[in-house]
Amino acid sequence: MYPSALSRGSRFPPSIWLPSAQCLPVSEFSAMGKPKVKPATSLIGPLHNFTGEEVATLRSHLLAWYDANHRVLPWRTIAATEPNPHRRAYAVWISEIMLQQTQVSTVVSYFEKWMSRWPTVEDLAQATLEEVNQAWSGLGYYSRVRRLHEGAVKVVEKLKGKFPSDRDGLVEELPGVGQYSGSAIASIALGQAVGVVDGNVNRVLARVRGIGMDISAPTTVAHMWALADEIVDAERPGDFNQAMMELGATVCTPKAPKCSSCPLRSLCVAQQRSGCVQQRSSIKNHFQQHKESAEEETSTIPDIECVAGCDFCLQKEDWDESLGVQNYPVKGRKTKQREETTAVVILECEDGRMLLVQRPKGGLLASLWEFPHIALTEESEEHWEKTVGGQVTELFGVLESDAASRTFIADVTHIFSHIRQTYRVYKIRVASERGVCWPERYQGGQWMTREQFLSSATSTAMKKVLKAVEAQEGKSKDKKSKKSSADQPSKKQKTISQFFSTVAKK
Ligand code: SF4
Ligand SMILES: [Zn+2]
To answer: Could you tell me what reaction this enzyme catalyses (predicted)?
Structure first.
């Protein structure tokens, strides 16, 4: 037996241990404070979330590490010692804007000079734009300082010197403050329990939770914010967020991360996965000496997908063993799409109703209604035409005579996150709905009118299939009516005899 992560209590590969019913589409995550993106619904397996126990471990390990290792920085000192929340917010705001695109070591001296010249927001509001530009000289990106100045004037004049008390208010009121800066100021200066996500946090989370989806995809962005909001320590949100960022900047670095001294090592999927790979390689070497058993034993190596259809797992073909944990995060790489072909059968009874079957309660597209379909392998695709009668008869109890009357409608393509699905659509008219059944894997079946189908829970792909059927039937109706109108003269068009009779009348 392969000594996999399974035996060490790792979460990898959870497809074996976790029911797919635990998966959540990303749209179900807490929406609190997430960026205004509208992610497509994706299947996110449990590997990419934290359990309550893991959250507790993460907080205590990370904060203990931060307490022992953090850098002493002037804005951190103000945030920790200044009793006035508006003064704290002001200092953290200045530091966060300076830190955008500028290194910490450069920012320190600029920050100290700035704070001794304009220690409060009122002081800054009274400065001229020329003065603040001058003080900013060398930091670049001057739009940042213009917005700082504009914001200071706004806080003093409109908000009477008081900073908004939470993330949403900061984002709304302060020019140049987006989701990241708003979260940083709210948590570090004002103690609001909201997470932050920057490049460092993205990298840490992608590795710790094995997130193999493109880091810039809206679905991933939304998931990262949901995770950050979930794991932030309510007692010490500012320290927690700074610890996550500091860990990314000093330990979980883009290249050569220091995994051996990382406080999150025990929770890290990337670390476990690269550990698995190392063990797997040594096992392969071992088995190369015993070739007969090699195939059998290596086949017990767990697959990489955490649950069937998970969009967040890094696919086997995308995993580069030489990179180890640096396989995460995935940047701009498109997940390789698998090609799949499925035969979809529209069974229509005499009154025009169609048979719909309901998918199982768990897994991909759980409980949605769909037209019955049969997955085609390369081989069955070849033989589909020959065997369709038998298959439809066997699977759905359709009479052989009905099954033989099928018509091919069209090929419909639908792209799921990593599947390029082709539906080969057929239509079969059944003389009687009695006797028609469906395979056990479905929850049930129902004959539906077009309207009932459109108002029930169905996938976009199935709606596309219906559209294709209607388009095809519309075309054939058009053809028929064109043909019949070509055969029969229109009202305006005169027959030859009418033409001559008209002429004669003249
Ligand atoms: S164990 Fe390594 S990869 Fe995982 S979070 Fe720590 S430094 Fe990053
Ligand atoms: Zn997964």
So the answer is: Hydrolyzes free adenine bases from 7,8-dihydro-8-oxoguanine:adenine mismatched double-stranded DNA, leaving an apurinic site
Give the domain-ending residue among 209, 241, 267. Answer: 267
Q: Taking 90 as the threshold, does the pLDDT of residue 222 lie above it?
A: yes
What is d(CA 375, CA 342) in angstroms, rounded to the nearest whole number? 4
Q: C-alpha distances in angstroms, 207 versus 254, 264, 286?
A: 11, 10, 29
User: Residues whose CB is under 5 A from ligand 2 (ion)?
Assistant: 45, 47, 306, 310, 312-313
Whether residue 244 has its Cβ less than 6 Å from ligand 1:
no
Q: Which pLDDT does position 202 carry in this prediction?
A: 97
Of the two residues 171 and 442, the one the predictor is more confident about is 171
Q: What share of the chain is helix, strand, coil (3-state, %, to 5)?
A: 50, 10, 40
Q: Is 208 in the pocket of ligand 1 (CB under 6 A)?
A: yes
User: Do residues 172 and 60 both lie within one domain?
Assistant: yes
Q: Are residues 33 and 113 in the same domain?
A: yes
Rounded Cα distance, 128 and 152, in Å: 11
Torsion angle (degrees, nearest 10) of CA 302, 303, 305, 308: -100
**Tens of pLDDT, residues 370-404:** 998 887 776 666 677 767 777 778 788 888 778 77
The residues annotated as belonging to the active site are 96
- Please tell me the distance from the alpha carbon of residue 340 to that of residue 421, in angstroms, as a whole number: 5
Evaluate the CA torsion angle 490, 491, 493, 499 in order and state its sign. Answer: positive
Look up tokens 């984002």; give the residue. 171
Q: Which atom of ligand 1 is nearest to the CA of 259?
A: 2
Q: Are residues 383 and 242 in the same domain?
A: no
Whether 348 and 252 map to the same domain: the answer is no
Condensed to tens digits (0 to 9), the pLDDT of residues 203-215 reads 999 999 999 999 9
Q: What is the pLDDT of residues 393-432, one digit of tens each?
A: 878 888 877 877 788 888 888 877 667 888 989 888 888 8
The reply to whether 332 falls in a domain is no
Cross-strand bridge partners of residue 344: 373, 425
Q: Which residue has the tokens 């992610």?
A: 39
Q: Which domain holds residue 359?
A: 338-487
pLDDT of residue 27 exceeding 90: no
The reply to whether 494 falls in a domain is no
| Same domain flag for 263 and 342 | no
pLDDT-above-70 percentage for the chain? 76
Question: Which of 267, 290, 308 is the last residue in one of the domains?
Answer: 267
Number of domains in the chain: 2
Considering the domain architecture, whether residues 356 and 240 belong to the same structural domain is answered as no
Ligand nearest, relative to CA of residue 49 = 2
The CATH number linked to 348 is 3.90.79.10
| CB neighbour list of residue 217: distance below 8 Å, 6 or more residues apart | 39
pLDDT at 485: 52
Residue 228 in any domain: the answer is: yes
Q: What is the CATH number of the domain that holds 130?
A: 1.10.340.30
Assigned domain for 407 exists: yes
CA dist., res. 365 & res. 357, Å (int): 13
More confident residue, 55 or 292: 55
* Helix spans in 341-446 (H): 378-396, 400-403
